[in-house]
Amino acid sequence: MTAEAKPDFPYVQSYWSLDQELEVSPPLNEDHRTEVVVMGAGFAGLASALGLIEARPDLKVTVIEAHHAGYGASGRNSGQIFNLPPFAWFLQNLSNYTHRTNARRAVRLIDDQIAKTFALLAEAGHDFECEKSVLQVVARNAVTAAGAAWVCKRLQKAGVETSFFDGKAAQGRVGSATRAILDVPAYRVHPFKLAQSLRKVLLSRGVSFYEDTPVDHIHSHTGGVTLRGPGYTVEAEKAVMTTNAYTAAHNIDLDFAYPKVTNSHTYMIATEVLSQDVLDKITATGDGFGDAALRFYYGRLHNGRLLFGGEDRKSSVLPEEDRHKASFASLHAEMLRRFPFLDHAEIYAAWGGAFQSNVLEIPQIRRAGVGGNVILNVAYGGNGVSGTLMSGRLMRHLVLHVQDDPDTLAHLQLLADTGVPWAGLVPSGIGLAATFLRRSLGFRY
After folding, report:
1. Nearest one of 396, 39, 414 to 227, comparing CA atoms
2. What pLDDT, on the 0 to 100 scale, is given for residue 381?
3. Which part of the chain is the FAD dependent oxidoreductase domain (predicted)?
4. Which of 117, 157, 207, 378 could potentially form a cystine with 94 if both were Cys, beta carbons 3.0 to 4.6 Å apart?
5. Residue 219, Cβ neighbours under 10 Å: how many?
6. Which domains does the chain have, with CATH numbers?
7. Which of 391, 319, 323, 400 is nearest to 362 (CA)?
8. Spatial contact of 173 and 123, defined as CB atoms under 8 Å apart
9. What is the pLDDT of residues 10-27, one digit of tens each?
């Protein structure tokens, strides 16, 4: 295959579900009563149910999923989990004690929750291919290198352990044009296995699980919440809604306001199995990588293949968007531009997935409906997986009204208070410009 060739794209739902045994619980086809119903079995829904059942082991929790656990974005990503603060927080004055304390607390809480969740699954004997790693944020030119240097200092103020490689020190780590590299802590996991592991833990703890069970109608009232779907009705005291981007696709009838969000698609391709020499040329360290640019591309190695993703675009979240050939062709061309030595590599799999976000890349986690009986846990764009796992801890307060965790209350308040940091835009712009100028004059990080 040459760089000019138009490859075939073997479309799949997800690379991660290939050659995996899919366990699916029977659908719900009768009326059902529970204390808390969780809608959606992606990472946000699975973590929400786990957080609730850990807080109250006797709680009657039911999970309802329109397809199967990990069907949506949770099972279609690159399997890299990293904990970076929302971009809006970068623009705040992190020399300010309050802003710095808030950012550090959030980073610490999310790190702790990820580690706790993974330890719980490992103790239960589940293999989800978890490995500590780093994400190499690659700067390809002088402008993005200055931005990476500026972000590195901001991350360190926020309590994120980072390493910065500049000039010659960055050369050879990734097999594409590189001016600087910022390493941030990350985990590499198998997303499908992670979703299935969380599902198995929930089943072992008595959570009722119904898959292939779409929801048509959600009604919040003074007595609780009523869900209706084909052939069933669920009556619950509380409902946690985590259906994310596929809410629009399912046309769920809601009697409360849903947050203003944007639905988008992202795309990935996996190459055939490559030789070790070629893999070493892609990344000498074996770690995943992403761009330090507004047009974000990312990749990682798995089982001898390169997984390369990007080409985010606003979408209608219809099934045909998963196979938007123009996006895959553009993604493939970008892969070859960065790694021209892959011009003969065949494509093994191509898949897309919808995600949902708002302009600030802040998840929408709050009470809604009559009496706050519906808890929204939606809109995870950006580095979503770390936030979804953290959301399970937040459910103790939002669903059960537990008030014994001041860090959780502070985190919820921080999410609710985050807006456009107008006051930080000018100082941030000055800081970026000053960093670029210093580097232009020969002063390094």
Report:
1. 39
2. 80
3. 36-397
4. 157
5. 18
6. 15-417 (3.50.50.60)
7. 391
8. no
9. 999 999 999 888 889 999
